Amino acid sequence: MDSLTTEQILDAHLDDWRKLAQALHARYLTGDFAAGLRFVTAVGAAAEGANHHPDVTLTYPHVDLKLISHDAGALTQRDVDLARRISEIAREQGVAADPHAVAEIELALDTADLAAVGPFWAALLTGSTDALHGSDVVDPKGRLPLLWFQDTDHHRTPRQRFHVDLWLPHDIAESRIAAAVAAGGTVVDNDNAPSFVVLADPEGNRSCVCTCLDR
């Protein structure tokens, strides 16, 4: 099945869901464990019927879901269709969504030699170099955040090599950046906004606030 562009995902108007780094994410406020279990059971039945399965995290006050077509390595119409069905289930059960609560951390490492450092980090983090997919280390068991290798030039002077990419819903990124600046941060580079904005803390440590837009 063909992968969908970010524009196609946004045009689908999946109000409960937000696209972050790669997948669709949603949080449903079930309120207690029993209600969450009922919701997850209904979602599981829908997933079995569609032969397409989300990642599900059930906690006492809420349920988190993640959708991506692993065989395509991208979002496809299967994800859109199942997201819509899950939203219908939530409405049927009176469960509210909180799309602005979703977020995702990605670690980024500057490197001029991916072929040299990529296998090391894959083996260290997951136990196998097979976890290196292109410029990413992907933990097949879902225990670790994504590690992305950012291509850079060779350099001798010390500089920050690791930084945190914070993926946020596209419709709250600006307010989060403003909050970080009000708390003492600085906007270092916004030339690529709204795709990403580089921030620095008062000591110069950098982070990128990333969204799915303009990618």
In short:
With 215 residues, the chain is an alpha+beta fold. The chain has five helices and 13 strands.
What does this structure look like?
This protein has 215 residues and is α+β, with helices and mostly antiparallel strands. The protein folds into two domains: 96 residues, Gyrase A, domain 2 (2-Layer Sandwich), CATH 3.30.1360; 107 residues, 2,3-Dihydroxybiphenyl 1,2-Dioxygenase, domain 1. It has five helices and 13 strands. An eight-stranded mixed β-sheet has the order 7-8-9-6-10-13-12-11. Strands 1, 2, 3, 4 and 5 form a five-stranded antiparallel β-sheet that branches. Helix 2 runs antiparallel to helix 3. It is globular.
* Poorly predicted runs: none
Structural class: alpha+beta
Biggest sheet character: 8 strands, mixed
Instruction: Count all strands and give the number.
Output: 13
Radius of gyration: 19 Å
Annotation field: number of helices: 5
CATH architecture of the largest domain: Roll
Look at the structure and name the CATH superfamily of the largest domain: 2,3-Dihydroxybiphenyl 1,2-Dioxygenase, domain 1
Give the termini distance in whole angstroms: 20 Å
Helix content: 25-40%
Q: Mind telling me the CATH class of the largest domain?
A: Alpha Beta
Query: In CATH terms, what is the fold-level topology of the largest domain?
Result: 2,3-Dihydroxybiphenyl 1,2-Dioxygenase, domain 1
Number of domains: 2
